[in-house]
Design a protein that fits this description.
Number of helices: 10
Oligomer: single chain
Largest sheet: none
Radius of gyration: 23 Å
Structural class: mainly alpha
Number of strands: 0
Order of helices and strands: HHHHHHHHHH
Helix content: over 70%
Number of domains: 1
Distance between the termini: 57 Å
Strand content: under 5%
């Protein structure tokens, strides 16, 4: 006796689905879109941008109205970003820490179960948003200072573009470090404290003690590398090649630590 097996329809038990699992790039695109929406929906994002903009414009006016010496207008953007970077980094930090503080990280991992892809998506959203905001605000600060100077020093477009590129590097590195630290610590206060110390306070303070080993520690911190990329503060702490080594080392450490923490630790 011959038994004829009828083909199963989709939805029946034992049916093989013709729908393949979404590819990595599809999952990454969806995770990026979700994090971008979440970043825009946080009120703290807009308050932080407003605070950063106010700080940079105030410093730009101070540079422009300083009658002691005529300086290139692009100094305003570089000086402003050193202090305003912490306001601009807050949204990137909260993109990670708010997930753990509110418990929504469980839903996030259900929607994006590939944790490595989620780590990449968060870095892409955080870095792109902070870099764009910083470059735009630095350009506005440069223009503000140029107008306030009345008779500014000669400033070429090439110098302005180079300065904005340095601002982009500083903010990109700072964002990666903040996202990595936030992913490991899962705490906003600890992350912001670590960023403030590592990017500004300790690199500037430790060499001033005159103790060689303290100076070495200060020059090895990420802030020493980022500050050395800017031209607004005279002689850099580090040579360009050494600054690049310090920056790349810290970026690699932050990315590896963030990926490991997200992939290996319980939510």
């Amino acid at each position: 006796m011959t038994t004829t097996l009828s083909p199963t329809r989709p939805g029946q038990a034992g049916a093989r689905s013709d729908l393949a699992a979404p590819g990595t790039m599809t999952v990454l695109a969806r995770a990026v879109a979700a994090d971008a929406v979440r970043l825009r929906s946080l009120r703290s994002t807009w308050w932080s941008l407003a605070a950063g903009a106010a700080m940079m414009l105030a410093l730009a006016l101070a540079v422009g109205l300083d009658g002691e010496e005529v300086a290139p207008a692009w100094l305003a953007g570089e000086i402003g970003i050193v202090f305003a970077q912490f306001a601009l980094l807050v949204p990137a930090m909260l993109l990670v820490t708010s997930d753990h503080a509110t418990g929504t990280v469980q839903s996030t991992l259900l929607s994006v179960p590939r944790r490595g892809v989620l780590a990449v998506a968060r870095l892409l959203v955080a870095v792109s948003s902070t870099v764009v905001a910083a470059v735009v605000l630095a350009a506005i600060a440069d223009a503000t200072a140029w107008v306030a100077m009345g008779q500014p020093a000669d400033t070429t477009i090439g110098e302005v573009v180079a300065s904005l590129g340095d601002v982009a590097i500083v903010m990109g590195v700072g964002t990666v470090l903040v996202v990595g630290t936030a992913t490991v610590l899962r705490n906003a206060a600890g992350t912001l404290t670590a960023a403030f110390l590592g990017l500004l306070v300790l690199p500037a303070m430790l060499p001033e003690f005159g103790v060689p080993w303290l100076a070495t520690i200060g020059e090895s911190l990420p802030g020493a590398g980022t500050m050395s990329m800017l031209q607004a503060f005279g002689d850099p702490l580090l040579s360009t090649s050494r600054a690049v080594v310090v920056i790349v080392t810290w970026v690699v450490v932050a990315v590896v630590a963030a990926t490991w923490s997200l992939v290996r630790r319980d939510a």
